[in-house]
Amino acid sequence: MLIVLGLLLIAGTLVGLFVLDHMVKHAIEVGSTLSLGVKTTVADCDLSILSGTMAMNDLRIENPSDFSSESFITAGRFDIHLDPSTLDDDTIVVHGFELNCLNVNIEQKLSGSNAERILENLSRFEAQQAGQRVKLDRIMIRDLTGTFQMLKMKRFEVKIPQVELREVTKEHPLGLPISELSARIFSLVRKELMKKASSELPAKTVSEIKKWFQE
Hints:
The chain has five helices and nine strands, in the order ααββββββαβββαα. The protein is α+β, with helices and mostly antiparallel strands. Residues 1-11 have low confidence and may be disordered.
């Protein structure tokens, strides 16, 4: 199973960022909602095209309506730094981004997970677009909380103070489509959460989580 910090919010954010030059908050919300198939909101944004930086606060990606949790991903603050000279190129170069107070709710049903559903929405959306590829170097996540829920079982929560991922697309010199990058990032983040869960939760619980959430 493919599970994205990058996080899927990255995918939606990038789509929204490049849809419009103005009304950035509205562009991100509309672009993310269209591409992910679920409502996305942000409290405020600060974008500088010339320097290639953007900051946003209180980003929220909701869950599909048939899942129990209200949100799939929330983040307190999200900063991204990219090379503005590549915005019109086939491959956009993203130097890195930082996420603070990131919460990821991963919910598994017999029909699949919320992450799978949203990734599938993104993949279908991207297939209809002449989408660019993205090269990404560094991700820094602070105060990461992952919540796992399998079917009707009890929720399990894992907290990690800091996660740093480097050379995310090193093996892909031309970059990756946004949907593939999102799946890769989310898979990397999930692996970090699973390592933390293995050191904190009972072995039986960890085994059950891996049964449902491993690729």
